[in-house]
Design goal:
By secondary structure, this protein is an alpha+beta fold. It has three domains: 107 residues, Elongation Factor Tu (Ef-tu), domain 3 (Beta Barrel), CATH 2.40.30.170; 65 residues, Beta Barrel (OB fold (Dihydrolipoamide Acetyltransferase, E2P)); 118 residues, no CATH class. It is built from six helices and twelve strands. The strands form two sheets. The chain has a six-stranded antiparallel barrel. Strand 9 and strand 10 form a beta hairpin. The chain is rod-shaped. The two termini are 37 Å apart. About 6% of the residues have low confidence.
């Protein structure tokens, strides 16, 4: 019985000694320890949100600290100016489409018949004026008519000839239809009108600020009634899923760290469970340890920055929070 008790005490003492040895190795950042403990601060990706168009803010739906889901409307601008621009663009598109259709369809039969009737009327008037001119030519030598009357008859005859030529050209244009160049120009004008309409629709849609990803409103910069410019910051959003910790690894430990290595992230909250994460990025360049990072080595040591990505972050990890990261190595290395 005594032998069993002694063996149990020895086993307990051995386990305690092993645990103490591990902790000592950990505190020394020994390159042969089973895990590496590092210190860093939580970094959360933030995005400044604003409108792509200028205008007067009409509403904002969230306060600072509110959670916003992807796709929710955060703020809106006054839509009236952009709605008016859209109406103008639609009217211009419709007019361009009607003009192109008129050119492609050509003249209506009624228009051609009307032009023929006008030409026939002009020709009849020319015949009448020609006959009157012939009589005036015979009477002028005998002084039966005055020179001024002769000149007036000549002018009316010339005017009638001009009307006939104009009527003939009008009828030819109606019968031949629009030129290919004119139709091509009308098509280009319609394409331009459609592009202006699409742009007006885009500008109208940009009066609504939609949340790009799940996150929390950090700052509410502008209020309803304020006139904002395109690209001006309206709110700052802290993204929910993009959470990581930057730690600094001494050069002797760098060769044992690889992307994808599992990590545990501990906060200072009592009895809190660690957050699971993994190594996502290892800097290729050495740098001096930042003064805001506490390590077991001197602050002036050269270290490499490593980014630890949290797998399932929640509100327990906040921007700038100091945390402890433990990287677990494979015991088969030893």
């Amino acid at each position: 019985m005594k032998t069993i008790v002694i063996l149990l005490l020895l086993a307990t003492a051995g386990a305690g000694g092993y645990f103490g040895w591990r902790q000592w190795k950990l505190s020394q950042n020994d390159p042969h320890s089973e895990c590496l403990e590092l210190h860093g601060n939580v970094e959360i990706r933030r995005v400044n949100l604003g409108f792509r168009v200028s205008g007067r803010m009409e509403s904002i739906a969230f306060e600072e600290g509110d959670f916003v889901a992807k796709g929710e409307v955060i703020a809106t601008l006054d839509r009236k100016p952009n709605e008016e621009n859209l109406a103008v663009a639609q009217a211009q598109r419709d007019r361009a489409a009607a003009e192109l259709e008129r050119m492609e369809n050509g003249s209506r039969p009624q228009e051609i018949e009307q032009a023929r009737a006008s030409l026939a009327e002009a020709r009849a008037s020319l015949r009448l004026q020609t006959a009157e001119m012939e009589r005036a030519e015979k009477l002028l030598p005998t002084r039966t008519i005055a020179q001024s009357e002769h000149d007036a008859i000549l002018a009316r005859r010339d005017e009638a000839e001009a009307k006939v030529r104009r009527g003939e050209e009008t009828l030819n244009l109606l019968e031949e239809g629009s030129r290919k160049e004119d139709i091509a120009a009308a098509r280009a004008f319609l394409a331009e009108a459609k592009a202006n309409l699409d742009r007006a629709k885009t500008l109208l849609g940009d009066t609504v600020l939609v949340c790009p990803n799940d996150g929390i409103i950090l700052t509410r910069i502008e209020e309803p009634g304020a006139v904002v410019q395109a690209g001006q910051n309206v709110v700052t959003l802290s993204l929910k899923d993009a959470v990581w910790v930057y730690v600094y690894v001494p050069e002797p430990q760098l060769g044992r760290i690889v992307p994808g290595m599992k990590a545990e992230i501990y906060t200072d909250t009592k009895d809190s469970k660690p957050y699971l994460g993994q190594v996502g990025y290892i800097s290729p360049e050495a740098e001096f340890t930042p003064k805001n990072v506490e390590t077991s080595q001197l602050r002036t040591d050269l270290v490499y920055r490593v980014r630890i990505i949290a797998d399932t972050p929640d509100n327990g990890l906040r921007q700038g929070m100091p945390v402890t990261v433990r990287l677990l190595f494979d015991v088969n290395e030893f």
